[in-house]
Amino acid sequence: MRTQQAYTSRRGVAVNMNASWSRNRNTVRHTPKTLGSISSAVIVGLLVLIVGLIYVAQGTQATNYDYELSQLEDEISELEAKREDLAVEKARLTSIASSENSTVAANMEDASVGGYAE
């Protein structure tokens, strides 16, 4: 087995193999990547913008439902008014038909102008 020997680096300094500066070992120290203050502010601003857009979209959706409900209520009230008018018309027509078929109405005289007041 080979023993570890000290070698001379290109700079002319003897280096021990067990030291932290050895052959085939990286000496670069990487720092963890972090966001800067501007990047953090931009990300927070975008998040606030997205939440605001979602809030506005939900508000307009609720308003649209309100408009649809008011249109349906208007339509219902119009149909109820038509139904009441038709009920009155039906009552008028049935009363005319029943009065024509009654014996009392058959015995009545026809109306005519008796004269005019002078």
**In percent terms, what proportion of residues is strand?**
under 5%
**Total DSSP E strands:** 2
Q: Can you give the helix content as a percent range?
A: 55-70%
Q: Label the overall shape.
A: rod-shaped
Strand order, largest beta sheet: 1-2
Uncertain parts: none
Order of helices and strands: EEHH
Mean pLDDT: 80
| Separation of the first and last Cα atoms | 154 Å
Main sheet makeup: 2 strands, antiparallel
Tally the helices. Answer: 2
Overall SS class: mainly alpha
Radius of gyration: 50 Å
Summarize the structure.
The chain is mainly alpha-helical and 118 residues long. The chain has helices at residues 37-101, 103-107; strands at 7-8, 14-15. It is built from 2 helices and 2 strands, in the order ββαα.
What descriptive keywords fit this protein?
118 residues, 59% helix, mainly alpha, two-stranded antiparallel ribbon, 2 strands, 2 helices
How would you describe this protein?
This protein is mostly helical and 118 residues long. 59% of the residues lie in helices and 3% in strands.
